[in-house]
Amino acid sequence: MDGRSAAPARETTVTDRTYRVTEIVGTSQQSMDAAVKNGIKRASETLRNLDWFEVTQVRGHIVDGAIDHYQVGLKVGFRLEEAE
Questions:
Q1: Could you tell me the pTM of the whole model?
Q2: Cβ atoms of 77 and 40 closer than 8 Å
């Protein structure tokens, strides 16, 4: 034996999930990354069960020949809750 301990086996349950997808636009004056984070943060305040995102567009606003702010279009997916 080489002294390493084996990681405990994980039990995983495969479940069928249904997602709703909605589109949002995150913005930031700092960076595209910050625009994504701002969009996700804001969406998480009103949507439950957010699981994934996809960047669909990148654009920005120019003022006097310089980038004023970034705009990032996102699709966010959230799990629909189980019916009771």
A1: 0.76
A2: no
